[in-house]
Input
Amino acid sequence: MHVIDERLVQWAARASRPQLRAGPTVEELGGFDAVVAAVDHLALGPFLHHLIQVTATHLDAVGTEVCKPLYDAVLNGLRSNSNHAAIASATQSLAVRPALARELGPSLTRVLLARLRQAQDAGDDLALALIGVEAADCLVQLTLAGVTQAARLLGAMDEATEDPAALPEAMATRLPRLLGVLDAHHPGAGLREALERCLMLDHTCRDAAFELALGDLRQALEQDQYTPMAAQLRKTQDRLAELITIDPDRLDAQLYHAAIEAVLGMSAPDAPSRVHTAAVTLRDALHLYRDYRYRTHTPAWALPGQNDLIAWSELTVVLDGAAAHLAHDDPWYDDGHTILISLLRAYTAHHTVAVVRNTPAAAAVETLVAPVIEDAFLQHEHRQRFLEHALAHDEKLRDDPAVQQLRAALLQRTKQTGNPTDQQADDPGKARRWQRLAHQLEDDFAVFADQTSEDVLDRLELGLRTHDDVLAAIADPKYGRLRARLLRQLENSRDWLPGIADEFTALLETTLRYAYLCYDIGRKMGGSYTEYLRKRDKDGKKQKVDEALFHQHYREVLQFSALFGVINSEVIDRAGGRTDVLVSFGAVHFNVECKIEEDDACETALRHYVAQAAEYQNANAGFAILLALDKTVDAEGAVNLFDSIWIEPVQRPGESEPCLVVIIRIPGGRDNPNLLRPAPVS
Output
């Protein structure tokens, strides 16, 4: 055993817990000369973190000049140590010692960035990949502490995620959370695009989706009006719902989803039940989350986010107490003091819930919650008299700043709207209560709300919310991302016009569902129509695979969709040829070509089919679909669905606008997947 190791063992045996956390001093390891003599052993071995601790304590004691030999050793250890555990403990020690990090200066940044770049080419070297992530984690903490400049780290992180699939999985898995915390502090640095690239991989998509949802939440809280903030929160909630669908055990997503549901539910007609349900869901998830946190290490950069999550949780508990008295017909006959206290706590939650102070959740209280509490008083005149009586007779409430603030706001709004018991339909309180109706009807909402009974408005609002909630609950997030990608490309066409866009979208969505069906069809499912998807049946007989079956099955799928009345097949004399499937929306027609490829079904090879599909659209909108049956799959297996759908622009001489052909590759003639093996390395 090295002499310095013996001294470390002796020191650890007699050190107290605080001393173990602080690390040994130079004297406890035999003096400065002894430590300098052992720096290479410490730097390149498992005790690199002790070298950092010794250097930091000696810096505090004697200053910079004496410590320079130790600085060089620390940098050498961070540069050359190949032990992941040693680097992990060393970077953790360095991150909590900003004074030492400042002394190490730009050299420290260069060393850590070099380890990050080395990890990108680590291949099967797990230790090297993980060391790169530890370096990135340390740089994030030092950047947030203001020790190092953010620009170089932001650029390096963006560069590292240009192709997440090329990174070692152990490295890529940990990057989205770091990207998320950097994006929170540097929102204009382009890291959101890096997170979106991470959505494409199974091992990074969950954390990336969560961090993107937090980014949506931050954007929502930057709004200063109810309607845009509520709309952005619903977008955040939808993203969280998609994540929960993928990962039902994702507790942080469940907590944020429930908290947002409680905030949005405050203005709903069924606020008491809706907010209470959200609060119950949140409490159950919070118990599990706290139990999980108790057993795990939390990096320093994650603490603000966890505190913010707790803030939203506490806010939800407060909202649950207030929502119980928000029903339009609640008589407020119970303990009046309790009712007012519950409402006032929600009204000024950014003051009364300690952990909400100075956090983004305060904006949600001021914009989304406080106006709803005011609306509750303005709905009925007797509720305002209720407040006036409390001010006159309840000494505990009389001097409460929250009561004075609420009273002043009510007086101000009463002056603006006239008689509070006869509010006009354009009153913002009504737009908040029936927010989905207001969004759907837009300019017509004021007249509609004025002419329709509140009971009917409530039922319509609940009906709209339930429909949207069901759609969100069953949404396939990867399908949603695929659909959004295709529509973004299609929207760039000048032909994406009213009367064309929605119609082609309907055809595209039905065809995508057909592709899903083809990929998931079983060996004994579908009968004769799906023979073309298999190579052999259960008896080992060769299946019939031809274009007629392929064409016929697609047509049958369309027949059982909402498009059943607008489908024509084998239409002759179209641009001098015959289209396989023609879908006609009045004067607007779209053709779908069905082709079989037996030799090469790569993207380049399939391009030679798109000209025919585009030719049939010469006298109509520049959109078409090409279904390509890939009969080459038995050698290597089918390419996954999401890499088998893309858009090919067909630009020909003399034309100013390309025809956009959506290519969908369908795996045909598949053999038993148990027999498949990875393709040979080229």
In short: The two ends are 49 Å apart (CA to CA).
